[in-house]
Design brief:
With 126 residues, the chain is of the alpha/beta class. It is built from 5 helices and 5 strands; from the N terminus they run E-H-E-H-E-H-E-H-E-H. Strands 2-1-3-4-5 form a 5-stranded parallel β-sheet, with helices on both faces. Helix 4 links the parallel strand 4 (86-91) and strand 5. The protein is globular, with a radius of gyration of 13 Å.
């Protein structure tokens, strides 16, 4: 079973992505509406369950705390096995500067919305 944390403020995107993940199966999905909510999940849930996500699907452009701010805070956060968590940006941005900055902040892969089943299957088979 793969544990996925989907961080996105777009409710349509999160609905479609979570349904696609369910279709593929063998995943547990948690959803956060922004980076601040995602960090709260780490503090409240993941820290107490000894269970971390295998993959974080992260939007970059969100209110409250965007994806870049999340990545900066996440880098400083002490989490067991943090180095095993794959961070994949899922965004509508095609700005090369965003790609470069995200990779500098530890992103493993950069996908543009909408999430396609073939891309999802590929990232789940690592």
């Amino acid at each position: 079973m793969r544990n996925i944390l989907l961080v996105d403020d777009d409710t349509v995107c999160t609905f479609v992505s979570s349904k696609l993940l369910e279709k593929i199966g063998n995943v547990n999905v948690r959803i956060a509406a922004n980076g601040e909510d995602a960090l709260a999940l780490f503090k409240q849930y993941y820290a107490h369950s000894n269970l971390t996500p295998d993959i974080i699907l992260l939007d970059l452009n969100m209110p409250v705390m965007d994806g870049f701010e999340f990545l900066e805070h996440f880098a400083a956060y002490n989490i067991p096995n943090k180095e095993t968590i794959r961070i994949i940006v899922l965004t509508s941005s095609q700005n090369p500067d965003d790609v470069h900055r995200a990779k500098q902040l530890g992103v493993n892969r950069f996908l543009t919305k909408p999430l396609l089943e073939k891309d999802l299957r590929e990232i789940l088979t690592f």
